[in-house]
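Justification of resources, computational component.

The compute hours requested in this renewal are based largely on the per-chain cost of generating structure records like the one below. Each record pairs the submitted sequence with a full structure-token output. That output is archived, and it is also reused by downstream analysis tasks.
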Amino acid sequence: MAKYKRVLLKLSGESLMGDKQYGIDEKRLSEYATQIKEIAEMGVQVGIVIGGGNIFRGLSGASKGYDRVKGDQMGMLATVINSLGLSSALTAIGQKSRVLTAIRMEPIGELYSKWKAIEALENGEVVVISCGTGNPFFTTDTGSALRGIEIEADVMLKGTRVDGIYTADPEKDPTATKFENISYDDVYNKGLKVMDLTATTMCKENNLPIVVFDMDTVGNLAKVMRGENIGTYVHA
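The structure output for this chain reads:
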């Protein structure tokens, strides 16, 4: 029996690169699709938001001379490419899925609405929601918080390369220690880089807990669903 009935899974664009320097690693994409199908078969309703950093990141584009609004719009289009890739990988293994876009772009995807997303979730489809919030100056973390709240998810799952939240970056600081659970306020006060401040504030104000865990280890997503104590739990 799954611990959560409906989840919003946030995946980073960078994680889709796998061992590559750019773009989408087909092996990593297949692993993600298999893990997602596994929890869908447990009866979990799965909404997904993916970043676009493996293709284009608006903020880094702005630092290179791009107009910030256009750069962010380019980043939104990158999330659509990733969303289509994941949806295709899910379809290939027999899992129904649907791509919704925050900006109108039929026939690539249907325009997002809360009601359309929930109807698809209740019909057993994995719903991949692209373009972040559809607005510049907002990250896909904020897009994830917004969509998680809108679709009335029980939890936001933030799949990363590390197995939770640490006192410092464990890839750079070997003395960093992991938090089993932590409050939203402690995330602020300790200056931890979990998500951007807007996303964390939205989760706090709407009582949406967050689980930060290592998505790159196959099987971890199902372990979270079974309630196993992996990752870090962020709560009020």
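The mean pLDDT is 95. The chain has eight helices and eleven strands.
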